[in-house]
Amino acid sequence: MSAPTLTKDPAVKDRRPRRPRAGAPHLTDGGFGKSLRRNLTAHGFLIGAVICFAFFSWYPIVREFLLAFQKTEDGDVSWVGWDNFVTVWNDPAFGQAWRNTLWFTVLALLLGFVVPFVTALVINEFRHGQGYLRLLVYLPVMLPPTASVLLFKYLYDPGYGMFNEVLGVFGVPAQQWLQDPDTAMLSVVVASTWMNMGGATLIYLAALQGVPGELYEAAELDGAGLFRKVWHVTVPQTRLILLLMLLMQIIATMQVFIEPFLLTGGAGPEGSTTTVVYLIYQYAFNFNNYGAAAALGLLLLVLLAGFSAAYTRFNRDEQD
């Protein structure tokens, strides 16, 4: 006899639990609520960051753009078109400020770009004590900028400064470091390099430690000396970091203000240390001409933005 077959009664519902479809929210175990709360939290943090960035970055940029075409007198705001730009352009200090800023940028790149890289190369050669050397190099960055600048102002003092004391040991007459137009800008660059080289040195050192040692061994087998190994191995392997740091340092040096302001009073002897940012400071807080200050700041913004865009385009074309 064959076993009886069981037929499914259509009136009886299937009581077996059904598996949820892929992507369907788990309403029974609270999965939908957890997902909603997680997304709300993430968007909350994102919205907070966007609001802070908009308030402290975008709003000042928009406000500066508007001020560049406005004039405020006795609380009354009026649109003046390009008058503020004409005022800035006709200022005798305008050209001098740009020349001094470009000169500071060139000197700062010669020292502030090369010295940290060479320092990183030297530290990278040490097998032991790299942690102490990194700390020693980074210490000036941890000091308040004002304290560092005042320290160099003491060292530059023509009467009892340490720099002149060292020169006196070798029979060299004392120098008027900050009072001489020929040496004032160079003195400012030296102080700025000492203050800011720590961060760049650590970045270069991290890039150097990522270079494979086999490349140096192959270069040594080919008879390459120290300079050739640096030029043909180190520089190509750290090229992206070098280019990025070059861009960042140009942007930073074009906005120099603290060092010349505290060391030479801003303008310096015969205006030798007057920079664009210091001229903006003069317009805003000495002449109460916020429109001219905004116009000059907008010119600096456009110049740096154009340089950054050109650099990015050039770097992208080379990578392609």
Automatic annotation (TrEMBL):
<dbReference type="InterPro" id="IPR035906">
    <property type="entry name" value="MetI-like_sf"/>
</dbReference>
<dbReference type="GO" id="GO:0055085">
    <property type="term" value="P:transmembrane transport"/>
</dbReference>
<comment type="similarity">
    <text>Belongs to the binding-protein-dependent transport system permease family.</text>
</comment>
<dbReference type="GO" id="GO:0005886">
    <property type="term" value="C:plasma membrane"/>
</dbReference>
<protein>
    <submittedName>
        <fullName>Sugar ABC transporter permease</fullName>
    </submittedName>
</protein>
<feature type="transmembrane region" description="Helical">
    <location>
        <begin position="290"/>
        <end position="311"/>
    </location>
</feature>
<keyword id="KW-1133">Transmembrane helix</keyword>
<dbReference type="Pfam" id="PF00528">
    <property type="entry name" value="BPD_transp_1"/>
</dbReference>
<feature type="transmembrane region" description="Helical">
    <location>
        <begin position="240"/>
        <end position="258"/>
    </location>
</feature>
<keyword id="KW-0472">Membrane</keyword>
<dbReference type="InterPro" id="IPR000515">
    <property type="entry name" value="MetI-like"/>
</dbReference>
<keyword id="KW-0813">Transport</keyword>
<feature type="transmembrane region" description="Helical">
    <location>
        <begin position="184"/>
        <end position="207"/>
    </location>
</feature>
<keyword id="KW-0812">Transmembrane</keyword>
<feature type="region of interest" description="Disordered">
    <location>
        <begin position="1"/>
        <end position="30"/>
    </location>
</feature>
<feature type="transmembrane region" description="Helical">
    <location>
        <begin position="135"/>
        <end position="156"/>
    </location>
</feature>
<feature type="domain" description="ABC transmembrane type-1">
    <location>
        <begin position="98"/>
        <end position="311"/>
    </location>
</feature>
<keyword id="KW-1003">Cell membrane</keyword>
<feature type="transmembrane region" description="Helical">
    <location>
        <begin position="102"/>
        <end position="123"/>
    </location>
</feature>
<dbReference type="InterPro" id="IPR051393">
    <property type="entry name" value="ABC_transporter_permease"/>
</dbReference>
<feature type="transmembrane region" description="Helical">
    <location>
        <begin position="40"/>
        <end position="61"/>
    </location>
</feature>
